[in-house]
Write a structure and sequence with these properties.
The protein is mainly beta and 88 residues long. It has one domain: Immunoglobulin-like. Strand 5 and strand 6 form a beta hairpin. It is globular and about 35 Å long. The structure holds copper (II) ion. Copper (II) ion (CU) binds next to loops.
Length: 88
């Protein structure tokens, strides 16, 4: 299991770039911090993640990176950009 700590604010992700190994389940330990807008919807299309976050709070999301390449971390409208980079 790959463990990733991800902080989500209203309009940014920290870290903005997340590197994952292909084929190993990823557990995102997410901290949502003063997150009041559309950024409360966390979307990682490359990992099939679509999750509503609380304004403040913690949440665990698990996903399987099964395809090498880059995809976005973004809101429901595709506004804010982080990146998921899956490597062999
Ligand atoms: Cu948005």
């Amino acid at each position: 299991m790959q463990q990733i700590s991800l902080k989500v604010y209203s309009d940014l992700y920290e870290p903005a770039n997340i590197r994952l190994k292909k084929g190993i389940p990823a557990r995102f330990n997410i901290q949502s911090i003063n997150n009041t807008g559309c950024g409360r919807t966390l979307v990682m299309p490359g990992l099939n993640v679509y999750k509503e976050l609380p304004e403040n709070g913690e949440l665990v999301v698990e996903a399987m990176p099964d395809k090498v390449g880059e995809s976005l971390i973004t809101c429901s409208m595709g506004m804010f950009s982080g990146k998921v980079i899956v490597e062999e």
